[in-house]
Amino acid sequence: MSPRPSPRGYPSAGTPRGGRRKGGAVRALLVILGIALVALGLGGALAAAGIHFFADTGKPAAPTATGPTAPTLDLSGFDPGNIISDTVFYDYQSMTQADIENFIRDKNAGCVSLSTPCLADYTEDTIDVPASPRCEGYQGVPGESAGKIIYKTAQSCKINPQVLLVLLQKEQGLLTASDYSLSPRRYEVATGFACPDGADCDPQYFGFGTQVYYAAAQFQRYRQSPAQFPFHTGVTNNIPYSPHASCGSAPVILANQATTALYNYTPYQPDPALLSGAPGECSSYGNANFYSLFKAWFGDSRR
What we know:
The protein has helices at 44-48, 86-89, 97-107, 146-157, 161-172, 184-188, 208-224, 257-265, 272-275, 286-298; strands spanning 39-41, 54-56, 123-124, 144-145, 236-240, 249-253. By secondary structure, it is mainly alpha-helical. The longest helix is centred in the C-terminal third of the chain and has 17 residues, at 208-224. The model is unreliable at 2-55 and 57-64 (pLDDT under 50).
């Protein structure tokens, strides 16, 4: 993937909370008829180790008047310790490239492009990435579509392409962004990878293809090197509700590697207020949105 993307850039969708999202890191959220949310960064310990991700949080914005819309937030059945099964998360053969392209066209239908292409029309020149213990590498091709990039990455890193599609919506709302809400920055930080707490995003990881590939690789890194990360499978983890310490936390036993990966990527759980349908200042939407989006688009994430 190319660190120098084609269309990039994403104007802030809200004021960063807790001083955690600065500069290139932005915040947006899933709304009843609007775009998915974006995140705050992960903790300083991971940043010091060079491992940086987003964590979604914030209040719902007003719904967009036109264009594609995201599913209604539905947290019925949400289990903080079992958001998605390993069987589903690592099912890299769940969709063909044609399936992915068709899915993007369907969810992106009605998108209006002003100066930035809609996801269904987005292309990028990709470059070769060597194989690693996490992925089998990537062979670059000029003018690759978003769907092709997602498919090739899923096959290389053995991550379900459905997970990558939901991640793109959860982080930057790319499947339903349209007209003035669609800007190049969304492609620049498409999956929120390499955006640490209290600092700007790392420009060497800018670009749609780069973001998709390295996010998928990181999910495998969580699986292969669990001791390097704060949350662990099969034990009780104290997971905060918000980046604000005053919001508190609650113990959660994480049932599988996939759910653990989601918390290492987005280290907050929805608070009781959000789960009851009355979100407040301590409500974080990241993993709640992942669960809700996956269920709406692909069915049971724990099958």
